Amino acid sequence: MIVRYMRCCQGHKAAKAAVVPEDLSLLPTHGVAAFVARVASAHGLVYHRSGLDDFAEAVTRAAGDDLKLDVTGALLVALKKKHLINGRQFARLLTNHVKELKRVRSDAQTDA
């Protein structure tokens, strides 16, 4: 996975607008992917999948862990690495994102 750091066109104003609240109860439970994308974009983070992603996933599977991060998960990791979110925010946002994905899949299965 390649995460490129780019200068944000809108400057500090966009970064301030994309502040992640410290209070975990204020983090979104719906539209989490869009929220994470806005925060990452405001800080100049862009996700681009690379050949290394396939390798990392294969190694992870070989180790017995079947974790596969989507774009939102990768952006959350990048935000955490840049200290733009803390561990508690990371965990809550990832949990909310996974729960939201499961809800969407469950709803799609009941519609079929």
The quaternary state of the protein chains shown equals single chain
Give the beta-strand count. 2
> What number of domains?
1
Q: How many helices? A: 5
Task: Give the ordered list of helices and strands.
Answer: EHHEHHH
The strands making up the biggest β-sheet line up spatially as: 1-2
- Beta-strand share of residues: 5-15%
Mean pLDDT across all amino acids: 83
What's the quick description here?
The protein has 5 helices and 2 strands; from the N terminus they run E-H-H-E-H-H-H.
Keyword list:
112 residues; mainly alpha; 5 helices
What do you see in this structure?
The chain has helices at residues 12-17, 32-42, 51-62, 71-81, 87-111; strands at residues 2-5, 45-48. The chain has one domain (2-111). The protein contains 5 helices and 2 strands; from the N terminus they run E-H-H-E-H-H-H. It starts with a strand and ends with a helix.
Question: How does the SSE layout of this entry go?
Answer:
Elements: E1 2-5, H1 12-17, H2 32-42, E2 45-48, H3 51-62, H4 71-81, H5 87-111
Antiparallel strand pairs: 1-2
Helix pairs in contact: 2-4, 4-5
